[in-house]
Amino acid sequence: MLYPRLATSTLFETVLVLGKHKVFARKRCGTVWGLLNTLLRLKLDRVLANLRSIGVDACILTNTSFVKWLLPELHAPPIDRVAYAVLLDVANSNCIVYVPPLEAWRAIDLYGDSVDVVAVSKKSLELGKDIKVVDDHLADVSKRIEGFKRIGCDSASFNEITRRFRDSVVVLVDSMIRRLRRNKMEEEIERIKKATEIAERALLNALNEIRPGMTELEIVSVLERELRRLGSRAYPFNTIVAVGKNAAYPHHVPCSTKFEGREPILIDFGAWFEGYVSDITRMIIPKSLGEEYVDVVRGVEAVMNAISESLSHVHGGVKASELDGIARSVLERYGYDKQFMHGLGHGVGVDVHEEPAISPTSRDVLEKNDVVTIEPGIYLWGRWGVRIEELVVVKENGAEKLTKIPQVLEV
Predict the structure, then answer these.
(1) Among 182, 172, 155, 385, which residue's Cα sits nearest to residue 264?
(2) In terms of Cα–Cα distance, which of 142, 136, 173 is closest to 156?
(3) Helix, strand or coil, per DSSP, at residue 298
(4) Among 333, 322, 326, 328, which Cα is nearest to 310's?
(5) What is the arrangement of strands in the sheet containing 116-120, beginning at the earlier edge strand?
(6) Which of 89-93, 231-235, 281-285 has the lowest mean pLDDT?
(7) Rounded to two decimals, what is the model's pTM?
(8) DSSP-assigned letter for residue 91
(9) What residues does 133 pair with on adjacent strands?
């Protein structure tokens, strides 16, 4: 990875030197956004190269997950749809992004000259910054690529594109984009690493403030405050803090249940960094467990061994269902396999749940540079629950573990 060096910096703008090239950058909210468009250009180069290889002249993407992958910085959770569409003019290597007027200035601030920003509105607006405003983005697309012979699109827009371009060959590109989205570049992995570091530091800081008498919601507020303070500008999903018996609900919603000082606590959360997320689960065990929770120690041991055994088999080419089976066989030895009610893991990237799926029925095969979770769990309704989640990068002959802090923490 080529890292930039700082050439000059002021409150409002920064010049970064990437190799021999100077890249203009803007500072917003204390963050230098200048090289965000560097990752975008790398993505566009990959997409355009693939489109050229199949002879496509232009490509229109409207599928939310595809647009979000190209422009993740624009889609901070819980916002799901910010850009309406992306038009890729393959012949001229241009990228046109169609957004609501509310997001036009932000898109320009984020991506600079890497894209042309077009606002879509039925109202007559003057937005400045030479921003073009259209009332129908697909009509504008039609004008821009009129006469093109081969047009790519995703299944979300296939019917509309085939209707508008009857004289063109329309090529579906869903599988191509999904493959590029799944196979992470080093620059993407670095962002996931940073999101993981933020999450782990936030949890360690929050542990220092957890006291008997605090409710689950109060613990959530401390943890999320630390996430924000350390640079997570959004949360990938609703933080789970489950005290005692509540941990038996895999997707427990934090409530007024109090930590009295002798219950285990399950915490499942993540951070968001420049469009990419982390996902981590840890068990918090008090120094003195209540009698009703003594079996949790054996449950933790079972889950930790299931993780260890699974990780030893992670590598490019392994079947996802095989990994899931390895974890279940470990839990079976402890008598807990019937209490493992979900898949072993999933992909992570721009979204917290992506391809591949690691489950008994998955047909996926792990590939180099997949970023996946390994998260076996045991859930005994009315008693307790245990889940621990590691985040790893798949390598050709193994795995790089991104999560570093202990799987079990003491409070």
Answers:
(1) 385
(2) 173
(3) helix
(4) 326
(5) 132-134, 116-120, 94-99, 85-89, 58-61, 150-153, 169-172
(6) 89-93
(7) 0.90
(8) T
(9) 119
